[in-house]
């Protein structure tokens, strides 16, 4: 055992030395070259990936790759750094905003027609996903840009989601850091994903503090689809999946994960490794079959940077943050971080709209792509503390809205198109394509319509007090 350990340490040290030599000998990139590829090159690359993917219909060997995962090299919490808005302005020239053709106040709409937003959810090349999944993983990776995780029009989206739900698991391990139970899977083709197990039946209601309870796997699934419906496109791709823990997971599990498996009431369970994970509170399958959500990890070249949320809770009994007791808080925020230089403040307001609709009061920090600095987008990650109580509307989530009275005009137009019950109808249809459908109960769908009404009313009040031109950005 000691000899083996020494051998591993020797090999690891040799690899580190080789890496350092490569870094020292590699010349720095020319400053005259752009850090980004041209639009034409990006388009050509995506088309080449699509061509390669479509060519797999005839079958062939699966090309194994190194797992593609995002580097969790988080920086310490810090304030924004000044920026000139160059990234946002340049990207906005490329990303044209197009309002979806949703059934707006149409009495003839009965939920049977296929909406435009649904068409990309339909798998189009299932055989290629089975024979060479790495091609579809490459397409999903090519979608990720500074201001979107996937494009508005993504014909292969249905195939990516289908792959998340069906491609064989080749390795299973404990989840990355965090407070909640999760597992990390490597799927055939080298794609890393996060698996969050089902902990509650759909009808279960979470009471108590607004961030109480285990993660809800169905909340991750529904949140991804709502992100698409709102046109934000900042949430990672998520699909539901059922796995056989005995035949699909345990044979490829690491010892670290295997040691957390146990049997309870004739059901196979595991408790993983996390801050709150323990043997007394495992996640249990129905026999050997476990339902869960599978989240696609971001490309490994997209390292993340963690930021402190300006409307973060203290998570301490008897102690509140300033924004919780001072409704003038946003005045100081906008003085310190002018909206024309700090678009992340508007991203926080977008996120507040999103979180209020799903009932997520647990966004105490957030991430952006590290290379984009303070001009990148606020990513909507870890959305599983959602859809806990359809009877309760946590108004504190809306503090950035009613304290700032600012909103992007594009999101305002989208919200108006989803009024009068349209939101629940659209969500019901898009969620029907997921393999673990029904994802949400009717009570949760109705709650989203009710909460949307609150948001609309709040901004109409802002218009009266501050003028629509001042409110909409």
Fold blueprint:
Elements: H1 2-25, H2 39-54, H3 86-94, H4 116-119, H5 126-131, H6 133-143, H7 157-166, E1 169-174, E2 183-187, E3 191-197, H8 217-229, E4 238-244, H9 245-249, H10 255-258, E5 261-264, E6 267-270, E7 283-284, E8 289-296, E9 304-308, H11 322-325, H12 329-336, H13 343-358, E10 365-369, H14 399-404, H15 409-417, H16 422-431, H17 442-466, H18 468-471
Antiparallel strand pairs: 1-2, 2-3, 3-8, 4-8, 5-6, 6-7, 9-10
Helix pairs in contact: 2-6, 6-7, 8-16, 13-17, 16-17
Can you describe what's shown?
Mean pLDDT is 82; it is low at 21-50 and 56-112. The longest helix is centred in the C-terminal third of the chain and has 25 residues, at 442-466. The chain is built from 18 helices and 10 strands. The strands form 3 sheets. Strands 1-2-3-8-4 form a 5-stranded antiparallel beta sheet. A 3-stranded antiparallel beta sheet has the order 5-6-7, with no helix packed on it. Strands 9-10 form a two-stranded antiparallel sheet. It has 473 residues and is of the alpha+beta class. Helix 2 packs antiparallel against helix 6 and helix 6 packs across helix 7 (157-166). The chain has helices at residues 2-25, 39-54, 86-94, 116-119, 126-131, 133-143, 157-166, 217-229, 245-249, 255-258, 322-325, 329-336, 343-358, 399-404, 409-417, 422-431, 442-466, 468-471, and strands spanning 169-174, 183-187, 191-197, 238-244, 261-264, 267-270, 283-284, 289-296, 304-308, 365-369.
